Structures are given as structure tokens and as C-alpha cells.
């Protein structure tokens, strides 16, 4: 017998009916246990997690309702089917309220019972599949604190999962504020190197002359101002990860040195001849187009290929607007923990319409500002948003639609919007179809046609 053979408990005090049905259910491959009354049924339920309980409602002593109560309270996913005498709908409704899945009225044929049973089993299978899919999706909505539900972000999480396990060099590209640094940190913290250091160096923030010393360290007296011996970032990141931000700005001379360090995993401190070997994973990031810099001769081609072993591109926020609601919820909770704040429909619309040149960082700042301006109100209004966001042209002012994971029925959805707009236009014009059609920029005949289709009589 396979592990997913449904186990069924059949409860009825009417022995002839019970044994007949049980027999036929067994023929159909069910594992069936019979109980001749409610007490026996409850005992059995305590001993075994049945998939299905089918019970007569009217029984002397413990009746079917109590059997359902016992079954559902113990096994919330159980399928309960009640058999009602003489089709008393009220009893059936009551049983369903208590958690039964369906009912069947006496007298019934075996096939009717099979039909009800199979329908319930199918529904349960779908429900558990959906729950499984949902949990899968929710897990995919983040990777080490990077949030995203849009297609590109979900693909990225999958890639990061694999990439984190290797030590290959990563070149991360993306506009400012798209999360390059958060991704670099997440990769490190999900890698076998997590027990060692994540060392970050912004190559554009340090004067060229000092950058080499920052990277490789120096010995005392190596240059004016080198008062002591210092470890460079490469050494500090030994066994860990070195994050080189803004690599595009490095001078040609330093590019050569970086290339060697990447190729040989060895270098010398400035002013020293001793070679130091390190085991470092390098993640480089840039918001300039490195391939372009290579073409223009500003960036070494060999270094580019050395860095670009695993290219990761973070798309700008405006190309993954699906992530905006998720990020907003996250930032509201960050800046007003426990306050359960939310955005008004028009505020959300404004956020969805704005192009976000500063990407997630700019969105985060906008939410922080809105929380400060909301002065304890739970709902963030358009007026709480930065002026540039408020001023963004909202195109056709498409309403913001939360897009469910399982999709939605677009024709039905659009029809509902259309119905709503027509209704509101007619309300606005006290039912005057001519003026309503004007408000909707459609012909009166079109409006009349649509009203006919909707079946509205006004
Ligand atoms: N997917 C995300 N989920 C949650 N927070 C994010 C996400 N992306 C970015 N952030 C937040 O946005 C801010 C900017 O991210 P980060 O510093 O990684 O950007 P960047 O790409 O390195 O930008 P720049 O090129 O300007 O350095 C950070 O505060 C980060 O926490
Ligand atoms: Mg950065």
C-alpha cells in the first residue's frame, strides 16, 4: 500500500449501510476503518491521523457534530464529510460551519459519495500545493536581507545562492543605490567565508596616492607619512571577502598591480620585498559602464576579464516596480516599528510612477521622510512624499494594483474597473448619459452599449 493511500474513518450506527459503503470504498483503494458510534470514532481519532472522516450526523450518544469537532480540532487539515438524514439543510450548514468540508444527504448512491469525496480530496491537494508554492515564493522574496519579489530579483536570488558557495570573483554593476553593497555583504555572509572578515574599500573615496597603500599595506618609511607598518585591505580580508567599490576609477598603474594580486593572489607591502600570499574572494562593484571604459582605453581589458568572472547586474528600481510595495512595507516597519503604517492609494500610485534615479536608497530616504512628516498618522499621504515624487507625472494615473503571485483574471479585473468608472460618471452627472459619456471621453452610443452589457438599468 502506498504512503498516500487515503485513510478514512467511516462512522454510522446503521451497520448495513456502513459495511456496504466501507467495502466499496476499499475496492476503490481507500484504507477504511469503521466506527459504529461517536464514542468509538473519537477513540479512533485519538489513535490515528485519518485523512478523511465521514460521519452520520444523527447518532445516539455522541453525535456527528461532536465527531467533526473532535476531528477538526485535532487535525485542522482533515476532510470531514457529514451524512444528513432526510436532507436537513440546517444540520449540514451547521456541520460545515464547524469545519466539515461537505455533506451528503440520505439516501444516497455510492457514486454520489465518491464524487463528494474526490472533490474534497482534490481541493485539499490544491490547497496544500498552493500553501507549498506560497512558502516557496516567500522564501524567494529575500536573500540575506535583500528584498525583492520581481522576476529579475528572484532570478538574482537563485544566482546568489550558487555564487555564494564559490570563491569566484564577482563584478557587480548597477546604478547608484540599487543595492550593490548589500548584495556583496549578503554573498559574504552566505558563503563558507562568513566566519572571516568582509572588508570594504571605496576606491574613489581615497586619493590615488594612498589607494595603493590601502590595498596592499606598507612598511615604515615607505613613503612620506608612513610612520609605521600597516596591513593593507587584502591582508585584512584573508580567508574572507574584499569588496572593491567603484573600481572603475582606478589609475592605470594601480590597475596593473590589482591585476597581479588577483592573478597570483600575492603582493608586497609598499617598501617591502617580502611577498605575501592571501586567500581572498574579491567582489568588485561599479556604477560606470566598465565595458565602455575598456573600449575607450580607460580600463585594462585583462583586468576587466579577471574581475568579470561572475557578472551580476542589479537592475534599476524603475525596471522592477513590483518590488516597490515590498520595499515600502519593509522601510515603514524599519522607521516606525510596530506602528503598522501604510500608504494611501494615491501615495502608492505616486511612488509607482516616479522614476527613482537614486533607486532603493532614494526610496528608503523618501519613506523615512514620510514617516517623520506623518506625525503619528497611520496613513502616509501624498503630501508626506518628497516634492519631486509628488510632481512626477502619473501618466494615465493607472490605479495601483497589488499583483497576486498566482496572477489575476485580467478581463474580469478590467471589466470591474470599467463598471466602477461608469458608475461614478453616472453618479457625478445624476444619471445623465450624455454628460457621463463626455466625462469618460467616450461616445454616448458606446456608453449605452456598455451599460447594456453590464446590465445596468439606469
Ligand atoms: N533589495 C533591497 N532590499 C532592501 N534594502 C535594499 C535593497 N537594495 C538596496 N537597499 C538599501 O538601499 C541602500 C543602498 O544600497 P547600497 O548601498 O547597497 O547601494 P549601491 O548599489 O552600493 O549604491 P552606490 O553605487 O551609490 O554605492 C542601503 O541602505 C540598502 O540597505
Ligand atoms: Mg555602494
Shape summary = flat
CATH topology grouping of the largest domain: Rossmann fold
Query: Would you identify the CATH H-level superfamily of the largest domain?
Result: P-loop containing nucleotide triphosphate hydrolases
Main sheet: strands, sense, barrel: 5 strands, parallel
The helix/strand class is alpha/beta
Q: What is the beta-strand fraction? A: 15-25%
Rg is: 33 Å
Number of domains: 4
CATH architectural designation of the largest domain: 3-Layer(aba) Sandwich
Spatial sequence of strands, sheet with the most strands: 2-1-3-4-5
Number of distinct beta strands: 18
The end-to-end span amounts to: 63 Å
- Give the low-confidence spans: none
Continuous helix count = 19
Instruction: Output mean pLDDT.
Output: 88
Summarize the amount of helix as a percent range.
40-55%
Question: Which CATH class of the largest domain applies here?
Answer: Alpha Beta
Q: Compounds present?
A: adenosine-5'-triphosphate, magnesium ion
Give your account of this protein's structure.
By secondary structure, the chain is an alpha/beta fold. It has four domains: 7-135, Rossmann fold; 144-314, 3-Layer(aba) Sandwich (Rossmann fold); 318-390, Helicase, Ruva Protein, domain 3 (Orthogonal Bundle), CATH 1.10.8; 410-454, Arc Repressor Mutant, subunit A (Orthogonal Bundle). It has 19 helices and 18 strands. The protein has a five-stranded parallel sheet with strand order 2-1-3-4-5, with helices on both faces. Helix 10 crosses helix 12 and helix 17 (410-428) crosses helix 18. The longest helix has 31 residues, at 110-140. The protein is flat and about 100 Å long. It starts with 6 loop residues before the first strand and ends with a helix. The protein binds adenosine-5'-triphosphate (ATP) and magnesium ion.
Amino acid at each position: 500500500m502506498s504512503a498516500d493511500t487515503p485513510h478514512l474513518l467511516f462512522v454510522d450506527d446503521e451497520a448495513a449501510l456502513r459495511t456496504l459503503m466501507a467495502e466499496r470504498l476499499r475496492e476503490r483503494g481507500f484504507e477504511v476503518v469503521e466506527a459504529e458510534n461517536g464514542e468509538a470514532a473519537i477513540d479512533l481519532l485519538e489513535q490515528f491521523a485519518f485523512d478523511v472522516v465521514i460521519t452520520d450526523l444523527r447518532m445516539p450518544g455522541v453525535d456527528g457534530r461532536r465527531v467533526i469537532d473532535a476531528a477538526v480540532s485535532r487535525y485542522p487539515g482533515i476532510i470531514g464529510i457529514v451524512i444528513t438524514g432526510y436532507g436537513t439543510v440546517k444540520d449540514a450548514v451547521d456541520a460545515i460551519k464547524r469545519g466539515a468540508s461537505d455533506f451528503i444527504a440520505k439516501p444516497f448512491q455510492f457514486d454520489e459519495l465518491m464524487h463528494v469525496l474526490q472533490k474534497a480530496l482534490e481541493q485539499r491537494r490544491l490547497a496544500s500545493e498552493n500553501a507549498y508554492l506560497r512558502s516557496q515564493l516567500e522564501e524567494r522574496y529575500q536573500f540575506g536581507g535583500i528584498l525583492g519579489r520581481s522576476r529579475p530579483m528572484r532570478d538574482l536570488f537563485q544566482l546568489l545562492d550558487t555564487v555564494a558557495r564559490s570563491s569566484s570573483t564577482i563584478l557587480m554593476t548597477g546604478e547608484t543605490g540599487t543595492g550593490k553593497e548589500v548584495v556583496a555583504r549578503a554573498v559574504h555572509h552566505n558563503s563558507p567565508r562568513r566566519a572571516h572578515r568582509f572588508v570594504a574599500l571605496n576606491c574613489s573615496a581615497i586619493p590615488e596616492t594612498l589607494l595603493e597603500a590601502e590595498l596592499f599595506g606598507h612598511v615604515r618609511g615607505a613613503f612620506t607619512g608612513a610612520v609605521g607598518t600597516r596591513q593593507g585591505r587584502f591582508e585584512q580580508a584573508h580567508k574572507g571577502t574584499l569588496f572593491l567599490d567603484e573600481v572603475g576609477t582606478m589609475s592605470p598603474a594601480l590597475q596593473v598591480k590589482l591585476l597581479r594580486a588577483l592573478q597570483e593572489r600575492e603582493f608586497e607591502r609598499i617598501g617591502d620585498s617580502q611577498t605575501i600570499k592571501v586567500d581572498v574572494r574579491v567582489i568588485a562593484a561599479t556604477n560606470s559602464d566598465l565595458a565602455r571604459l575598456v573600449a575607450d582605453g580607460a580600463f585594462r581589458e585583462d583586468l576587466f576579464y579577471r574581475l568579470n568572472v561572475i557578472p551580476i547586474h542589479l537592475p534599476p528600481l524603475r525596471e522592477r516596480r513590483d518590488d516597490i510595495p515590498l520595499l515600502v512595507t519593509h522601510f515603514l516597519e524599519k522607521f516606525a516599528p510596530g506602528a503598522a503604517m501604510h500608504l494611501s492609494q494615491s501615495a502608492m500610485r505616486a511612488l509607482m510612477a516616479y522614476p527613482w534615479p537614486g533607486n532603493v536608497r532614494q526610496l528608503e530616504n523618501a519613506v523615512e521622510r514620510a514617516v517623520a512628516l506623518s506625525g503619528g498618522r497611520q496613513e502616509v499621504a501624498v503630501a508626506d512624499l518628497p516634492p519631486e515624487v509628488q510632481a512626477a507625472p502619473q501618466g494615465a494615473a493607472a490605479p495601483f494594483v497589488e499583483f497576486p503571485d498566482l496572477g489575476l483574471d485580467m478581463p474580469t479585473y478590467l471589466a470591474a474597473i470599467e463598471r466602477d468608472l461608469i458608475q461614478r460618471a453616472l453618479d457625478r452627472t445624476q444619471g445623465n448619459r450624455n454628460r457621463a459619456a463626455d466625462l469618460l471621453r467616450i461616445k454616448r452610443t458606446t456608453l449605452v452599449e456598455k451599460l447594456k452589457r453590464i446590465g445596468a438599468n439606469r
